[in-house]
Design goal:
This protein is of the alpha/beta class. It has 15 helices and 15 strands. Helix 1 packs parallel to helix 2 and helix 5 crosses helix 7. 24% of the residues are buried. Bound molecules: adenosine-5'-diphosphate and magnesium ion. Adenosine-5'-diphosphate binds next to helix 6.
Length: 768
């Protein structure tokens, strides 16, 4: 038992030692835990302290930031801007007022000048600036809004920070309270630990209690640690928030700086523009002023001139007023005067008209009498002048005349007398006197001038014959027809008739007709007819007037030169188709152009008819009897017959014989009307100038002179012709000596006509 007791005792002892060991370990662990806890709490305290410091510094930073860039600075800036804005607005208003003034100032002269343009430009600029200012204002208000928002957000952040700090302080307090509790618990635990050797049970109990407390404290510790971690987390978040707020602040600052610089720039620009505007305005004002001064000066000068003018005008005005008053008085009496004057003028006019009427009647009577008188005078003139005139025309030497002695010139002229022609025939000089001699230099117009008067007499109802006489090749056709470029008498005569008729168109109505015929071998043919071969007969008019007419002879009415040309062409074509050798044929036939001019006097109804016969005679060269036979001889005989008949008729007419042998040839018979009575005849004797033709030339000139001399028939003149009557060789018989004119040995009678002292050239005195 004791043993057991001792055993139990030793066991208890062991147990006690173990427990004591265990207690020591526990105490040790507790102490360790204690120191650990203390370290942790100091650490925590340090951390809290740190956090507090950080919070304080953060608060300081926030306040600094607030003071630095918060509301106050921005507001200040905004205020400054508002003030600046206000100033600008005032300035603008001032400018506007000035502008208005300027606009009101320039008067009429400035309208439309360059200043209005300038001011319009300035106005545009101003409105632009105003727009910019409005824009800036908008920007400014936006900035203000932003700043306001930021300030609000900052305040919010601060509030949240404050809340956090408060929460933290509470937490801290709670933690320190709990720390204190744990210390107390630990202290109480320490105080509680009783001596184990005394009460094991107590120890046991206490040990379990301690164990429990330990676990509790451990749990508490755990909880505390969790809370600290949480706090750390919160702190971290806050730090992050702080950082982001820092960034935001920096961004805001940068933005504000940007806005400031922009504002400054805009302000500078505005200032510059305002300055330039100001300068422009000043310049414009100065220029306008200078111009106005110059204009003013001019106006002053004008005014002075006008004043002086006014002074001089005043007396004139006074006299004008007087005149006007006088005129007014006169005008008042004018209608009466006018009526009287009108009455008297009407009476005068009536009288004058009556006088004019009677004068007109008288004039008409006189005119008719004059017309009769003129015709009488003309008849008398024709009677005195003789109805036959003879002129000679010498053609120039042509290539056809050849060369050598035969082609030398044998014709000369008198320098003082244009009616004399000298011919050197076989070495002897022979002279002739005609009415006129045309040298080779004479133009177609010169010749026409000579015959012009005859042609116009046609219009007055006279019959006219113009013959071209001479040997073949002497220029008959050239004188009558001419060339297309240089027409002869035929065409010029018709042109003249047209123009004369046109001149008289107011009083007379004329019709001009043309016929063309040829006489070959005593046969008459119509050159304008459809049947040119048909032989035409000359008959007496059945009306018993004794007039002749050719039934079937074509008559064309012509009104213009173009018409004549057509007629001539037609005649020419007829002749060309009819005869193979036209040149030869035409030299052996007589070609006649018969122009009839019929007129009616519009006032009297008097009718006139004039005939113009233009005859290109056959060649006058004589063909030797021995050298010609057959048809050529027959041709020569016919030509000689008709030319002799022409000579006989002219001779009979000139010597005023009772019987004129018109019927001896077709030519004279056809021209009977135009050769007798008060008709007029012109013979153009064509002459070749060359040596080889002198015999024919001599013959032609003798014929011409004989024809001319015949007219001096009656009275004393007749006696002068006595010497000519014996000249047999000039009788109208064919000479028929040699076939070639140049080879013919025909001598001039005696010493030639010009050498004859009795030879006279009749010169007509114009009738008064
Ligand atoms: P005719 O009719 O008498 O036989 P032409 O009239 O045929 O003669 O004339 C013969 C030539 O002489 C023609 O070539 C013509 O052109 C020319 N002739 C005639 N007279 C003149 C003149 N006055 N001027 C120039 N040439 C002329
Ligand atoms: Mg001819």
């Amino acid at each position: 038992m004791v043993h057991r007791m001792v055993e139990a005792m030793s066991q208890l002892q062991e147990e006690k030692a173990r427990l004591q060991e265990e207690l020591a370990a526990l105490q040790e662990r507790l102490a360790l835990q204690d120191s650990d806890q203390q370290a942790t709490s100091t650490q925590l305290q340090n951390q809290v302290e740190n956090l507090k410091e950080k919070l304080i510094s953060q608060a300081q930073e926030v306040s600094r930031l607030r003071s630095e860039l918060g509301g106050t600075d921005l507001e200040k800036h905004r205020d400054l801007l508002v003030v600046e804005n206000e100033r600008l607005r005032q300035e603008m208003r001032r400018f506007e007022a000035e502008l208005q003034e300027l606009r009101a100032k320039p008067v009429a002269p400035c309208v439309g000048c360059e200043h209005s343009q300038e001011s319009a430009q300035l106005r545009d600029k101003l409105s632009q600036l105003q727009l910019e200012v409005a824009e800036n204002k908008g920007m400014l208000s936006e900035l203000n809004l932003e700043v306001q928002q930021k300030t609000d957000r900052l305040a919010e952040v601060e509030l949240r920070l404050k809340d956090c700090l408060a929460e933290k302080a509470q937490e801290e307090e709670r933690l320190s309270r709990r720390l204190r509790d744990s210390h107390e618990t630990i202290a109480s635990l320490r105080a509680q630990s009783p001596p184990i050797k005394y009460v094991i049970k107590t120890v046991e109990v206490e040990s379990s209690k301690t164990k429990q407390a330990l676990s509790e404290s451990q749990a508490r510790n755990q909880h505390l640690q969790e809370q600290v971690a949480m706090q750390r987390q919160v702190l971290k978040e806050m730090e992050q928030q702080l950082q982001s707020s820092h960034q935001l602040t920096a961004q805001l600052r940068a933005q504000i700086a940007m806005y400031e610089s922009e504002l400054e720039r805009a302000h500078g620009q505005m200032l510059e523009e305002m300055q330039s505007l100001e300068e422009d305005k000043n310049r414009a004002i100065e220029e306008a002023f200078a111009r106005a001064q110059v204009e003013m000066k001019a106006v002053h000068e004008n005014l002075a001139g006008v004043r002086t003018n006014l002074l001089t005008l005043q007396p004139a005005l006074r006299t004008l007023t007087n005149d006007y008053n006088g005129l007014k008085r006169q005008v008042r009496g004018f209608p009466l005067l006018l009526q009287e004057a009108l009455k008297s003028v009407k009476a005068e006019i009536g009288q004058a008209i009556e006088e004019v009427n009677s004068n007109n009647q008288e004039l008409l009577r006189k005119y008719r009498r004059e017309l009769q008188l003129r015709k009488k005078c003309h008849n008398e003139l024709v009677r005195l002048k003789g109805n036959i005139r003879v002129i000679a025309r010498v053609r120039p030497v042509t290539k056809e005349d050849g060369e050598g002695p035969e082609a030398t010139n044998a014709v000369t002229f008198d320098a003082d007398d244009d009616s004399i022609i000298h011919l050197l025939h076989k070495g002897k000089p022979v002279s002739f006197e005609l009415d006129k001699v045309f040298s080779p230099r004479a133009s177609q117009q010169d010749v026409f001038q000579e015959v012009q008067a005859l042609i116009t007499s046609c219009i007055d109802g006279f019959n006219v014959c113009i013959f071209a006489y001479g040997q073949t090749g002497a220029g008959k056709t050239y004188t009558m027809e001419g060339t297309p470029e240089n027409p002869g008498i035929n065409q010029r005569a018709l042109q003249l008739l047209f123009s004369e008729v046109q001149e008289k168109a107011s009083d007379w109505e004329y019709t001009i007709t043309v016929s063309a015929a040829e006489i070959y071998n005593e046969v008459l043919r119509d050159l304008l007819g459809q049947e040119p071969q048909e032989k035409l007969e000359i008959r007496l008019c059945p009306d018993g007037s004794g007039q002749l007419y050719v039934p079937g002879l074509t008559e064309f009415q012509v009104q213009s030169v173009a018409d004549i040309n057509k007629v001539f062409e037609f005649g020419h074509t007829n002749r060309t188709t009819e005869f193979t050798n036209l040149n030869e044929h035409s030299s052996r036939s007589h070609a006649l152009l018969i122009v009839t001019v019929r007129g009616v006097d519009c006032s009297t109804g008097l009718r006139t008819t004039g005939k113009l016969n233009l005859v290109d005679l056959a060649g006058s060269e004589r063909v030797g009897k021995s050298g010609a036979e057959g048809s050529r001889l027959r041709e020569a005989q016919h030509i000689n017959k008709s030319l002799s008949a022409l000579g006989d008729v002219i001779a009979a007419l000139r010597s005023r014989q009772g019987h004129v042998p018109f019927r001896n040839s077709k030519l004279t018979y056809l021209l009977q009307d135009s050769l007798s009575g008060d008709s007029k005849t012109l013979m153009v004797v064509q002459v070749s100038p060359v040596e080889k033709n002198t015999s024919e030339t001599l013959y032609s000139l003798k014929f011409a002179e004989r024809v001319r001399s015949v007219e001096l028939g009656p009275g004393s003149r007749r006696a002068e012709l006595g010497s000519w009557s014996s000249q047999e060789h000039l009788e109208w018989e064919p000479a028929c000596q040699t076939p070639q004119p140049s080879a013919r040995a025909h001598s001039a009678p005696g010493s030639g006509t010009t050498s004859r002292p009795g030879s006279i050239r009749r010169k007509l005195q114009p009738l008064a």
